[in-house]
Amino acid sequence: MRFSIKLSNVLFCWIIFTALVFPGQHAAAKGPRTLEVHSVFPKGLIFLNESLHHLSTVVETLSQGKLKLYFRGVNEVVSGDELFHAVKTGKIDAAWSWTGYNCDKIPVCELIASMPFGLKAEYSMLWMWNGGGLEILQKGFDNHNIIVMPTHIVISEAAGWYQKEINTIADFKGLRIRIAGIGGEVLSHFGAIPSMIPVEKIFNAIASGQLDALEFTIPDVDQSFGFEKFARYYYFPGWHQPSSWNALMINKKIWNTLSEHERNILTYAARINSSWSLAMSYQRQMSALEMFKSQGVEIRRFSDDILNQLLQVSRKSLKKKSAANALLKQAHQSQVNFMKTVKCWNNLQQAPSQFVMPGDCGNKK
């Protein structure tokens, strides 16, 4: 009996010792930690679905299988317009959404998601990760019990699909257009009738004849929707949104239950996926445009005169919004200061365009 008691004491001490010295081994026995992430987009969208899969793979690889992301499409559990509130209140662990969908609650999101004539994607990513952008964005989410993590950079979008030609600024008058962000306000100045229709309701809006034009995203992703059946003219450039961000939104209480190691994994995975999304974006767009052309779509570009008038109104709109919101003003000034430095460096070290490696896109229109 005495021996068995001593042995049990030894075993008890050994269990405590190994739990303290080798905590990871015991944690592993519990199985992987899984965060359920609800997307604002339908499953199966070209590129966006790939991005979610890539992000999930990076997280699982970095954690050696101990942390996983499980994605659900829009309306599987929560509708797109309910995602923010669901994360904030803890109804769901996390969501993956376009940052611009939150601008009514967090005004600075509007600037980061769709600043007309703003930062190109590569500069937006540099500003976000190394220029103070993430810190500013997180300030906007702090009062909503949410940790935000930009994970996917969107390059300059198309200006949109139009059922009629846009030859002058006057052609926007009376145009019913689905367009996101500040760009819609700018077009309304010229008589357009903008609306921010959620992605899952776009098809119904088209079918019911509510729209004369719409913009969604880049050509590669637009393929998933069959917009070439809706409109003949596909306009560029994406003046209203030279870059944008999709981001993870994680409930803060859930975030606080993660270990420091798990938080670091998510942070690094967000940066890795951002770089991946940029690297994958450019080459894919021309093949998408060729497909659209084969379907009878005409690829057009707004005239310089139209773009200049859009620019002037955009500047006035940004000035007004900056005066109305301190954090948005801080973000705008931060981007301006960042680009001053970038432009000074580029002016010094970049060769003039005539000395750059040649490449003819073959589109003279």
Automatic annotation (TrEMBL):
Q: Which Gene3D superfamilies match?
A: Bacterial extracellular solute-binding protein, family 7 (3.40.190.170), Periplasmic binding protein-like II (3.40.190.10)
Q: Name one GO cellular component term.
A: tripartite ATP-independent periplasmic transporter complex
What GO molecular functions are on record for this protein? metal ion binding
Against Pfam families, the record matches this protein to: DctP
Q: Which InterPro entries match?
A: DctP_fam, SBP_TakP-like, TRAP_DctP_sf
- For the ligand (substrate), the binding residues are 157, 178, 215, 241
Question: What residues bind Na(+), as annotated?
Answer: 216
Q: Organism's domain of life? A: Bacteria
Annotated GO biological process: transmembrane transport
Q: Which PANTHER family match?
A: EXTRACYTOPLASMIC SOLUTE RECEPTOR PROTEIN, PTHR33376
Q: What is this protein called?
A: TRAP-type mannitol/chloroaromatic compound transport system, substrate-binding protein
Source taxonomy: Bacteria, Pseudomonadati, Thermodesulfobacteriota, Desulfobacteria, Desulfobacterales
